[in-house]
Structure formats: C-alpha cells, structure tokens
Hints:
By secondary structure, this protein is mostly helical.
Amino acid sequence: xxxxxxxxxxxxxxxxxxxxxxxxxxxxxxxxxxVDGKSNITKVLEKAxxxxxxxQTLDELAxxxxxxxxxxxxxxxxxxxxxxxxxxxxxxxxEKVIAKIKDSPDxxxxxxxxxTSCKKFVKLVIDEKKAEELIRKCSEIMSRL
Length: 145
C-alpha cells in the first residue's frame, strides 16, 4: 500500500453511505466515511487512528468495490516527483532547478518547456551527465501526463 496514494469512494461506496443498501459492518462504514478523495492513505490512517486495522479495512473496502485508488495524475503530484528527482540527482545543486519546477505552468507543454530549460541550465552550470540523467528520469515521470 503506497501511503501517498489517494482513495476515492466509488458509486457503490457513496450509495452505501446514503442508503445502507449493502449492509456494510459499522467498522468498515466508519473507515469509509474518512475516504474523501483528497486525503492520501497516510492521512486517512491518521484520521481513523482510533479504529483497529485501518489498513486492512481499506484493502477490504477496495476489494468489495466501495473505494478505489484515484489514478488521476495531478500537476502538483508530478511537480513533487520532479522536485524529488532533482534533489536526488543534483543534491545541493538542485535549488535553482527546483525553483523553476515550482514556478512552471500547470500544463503539459509548460512543464516540458521548463524541463528543457532545466536541462540546458544543468548542462551549462553543473554537468552534462547530470543533465542527461535528470532529463531521463524526469521524462519517465512526465510520460504519465
């Protein structure tokens, strides 16, 4: 279970909360209430910390079709991954690249232009091999857009 993933209620989950149609046991129903489509798994676990076996309960709700992982790719999530990759690849030299990524427009084209600019910057200021490594890793991340 990836703690950064976000669960969202399915139509079945929404229906259960409205009508109790499926007779979900109270412990499962209580955890279902905490799934809001915005909070990642870590936050859901924190919210439901008073309940036993929340991780298993989430798995069970997913298997039964009450919740599903939100596979929507967000620009904020992609930017976070790009920033982490820049830090990992460039170390202490990553700050200017990170600033460029943060300021990048939230469009595929804007982010691609930013990464092209970052590659040129890293190639000129830091190292050509680091620039190639950074772009290779970032291209994999951006391929999900």
